[in-house]
Amino acid sequence: MRTTQEHWNTLYATKKSEEVSWTQAIPKPSLDFVDYFKLRNSASIIDIGGGDSKFVDCLIALGFQNITVLDISECALQRSQARLGENAKRVKWIVSDVTDFRADQSFDLWHDRATFHFLTTEIDIEKYLGIAKKTLKSNGYLTIGTFSEKGPDQCSGLKVKKYSEESLQKQLERGFKKLRCFTEDHFTPFKTVQPFLFCGFQRTGM
After folding, report:
1. Which domain holds residue 113?
2. How many helices and strands (H and E) does the chain possess?
């Protein structure tokens, strides 16, 4: 049986960006949150499960100087680095399962589009949230993009956990304050629709 890391490395090694469902030319919901939080260019940002997403390209273009991208797949990160060329040197790249992540710095923004919903056990969810709490600065921000209740039951051959605004808020009620949520349909390259829920939270002292 393949490990989760092997699963994702195989996927990125065998499929082009336009052949995976989550690809986005412009990650508008993520960029909307960056604008909403009014972050300074010196803000430390980590993109959880960043893969070969173009969110990092946009952050560089906006002038952010302290960017980290984490993904379980080394192959995915290599693709991003190749795309960015010299700009890849301006980013810190980490190969890790998020539930095993041990940060050597704290962050102003924890950004996650489509990683959290792959955590389907309470143990993994608790690990994830515990690491996010330890990693975020006081009053730092966290954004999660996950499949809504109307979303698919599986993605890329793996089961997912779907959320409503209320159930996601319930998961984060200890340690985070909800700031805003919205739903958005993501249109895949295969002409299918994936209903997403995007929520932004602020770290509290709880």
Report:
1. 4-13+25-203
2. 6, 9
